[in-house]
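Need residues for this backbone.
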């Protein structure tokens, strides 16, 4: 995933054709899904102190 930083937060987006885009709020750290993309794809990415990794949800 590629990360684009702005004063509002961080935008992580998959550049491998998946279409997933998520935003991490710069103040609260809240994660917002903009586009789910391929829900079966596993992603990881980081920028500074923020790191996204795959998680299993039961």
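Answer:
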């Amino acid at each position: 995933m590629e990360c684009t930083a702005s004063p509002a937060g961080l935008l992580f987006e998959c550049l491998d054709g998946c279409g997933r885009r998520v935003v991490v709020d710069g103040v609260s750290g809240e994660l917002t899904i903009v586009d789910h993309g391929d829900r079966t794809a596993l992603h990881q990415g980081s920028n500074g102190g923020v790191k996204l990794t795959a998680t299993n949800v039961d």
